[in-house]
């Protein structure tokens, strides 16, 4: 099948920190021919990076907690437990963003990086694509409150054992998809990663 789509009309619906466009489009069908013209809202956010900060010597992960507007429909759970993440700015590489955001959001200096995967977060409406890393850190002195005041960030940082992190997934304490993916990847690859990173 020759897969194609046509954007027939694009209208800017909102421009702020993010951009929203209203599209009229159509695409080819598996059965042949073209779909009817349809309307779709398109939330534009450029490529982003997320990093699971892991101390292989102590078998600990670094987690952050901050207010998330997307979770406000459940006010009692509006502060989400996550991992470090941020948008790629013009001229930056994925690795540079991983190191910058780790320092800004968690006070951590990354020693080594491995790529976990690259994926869309919500492709039904958003262009956001994540490069997910695992970063080697020394977690001995990690903690406290971090983030950039000029960006309104108020980020609580803590370390937990790998076993605790898995339990936080199992009991629903962690309910954001990106850290769930990262920690489950670590569960599958921890032996290999410790062999790679530990002296």
CA gyration radius, whole angstroms = 19 Å
Q: Runs with pLDDT <50, length 5+?
A: none
What fold name stands as the CATH topology of the largest domain? Nucleoside Triphosphate Pyrophosphohydrolase
- How many strands, which pairing sense, and closed or not: the largest β-sheet? 8 strands, mixed
Mean pLDDT comes to: 94
Number of helices: 3
Short précis:
This protein has two domains: about 5-45, no CATH class; about 50-195, Alpha-Beta Complex (Nucleoside Triphosphate Pyrophosphohydrolase).
Keywords:
199 residues; Nucleoside Triphosphate Pyrophosphohydrolase; eight-stranded mixed sheet; three-stranded antiparallel sheet; 22% helix; 39% strand; globular
Protein architecture, described:
There is one protein chain. This protein is globular. The protein has two domains: 5-44, no CATH class; 48-197, Nucleoside Triphosphate Pyrophosphohydrolase, CATH 3.90.79.10. It has three helices and eleven strands. The longest helix has 21 residues, at 177-197. It starts with a strand and ends with a helix. Strands 4, 5, 6, 7, 8, 9, 10 and 11 form an eight-stranded mixed β-sheet that branches. The chain has helices at residues 94-106, 162-170, 177-197, and strands at 5-15, 19-27, 38-44, 48-55, 60-67, 79-82, 84-87, 112-120, 129-136, 144-146, 155-161. It is 22% helix and 39% strand. By secondary structure, it is α+β, with helices and mostly antiparallel strands.
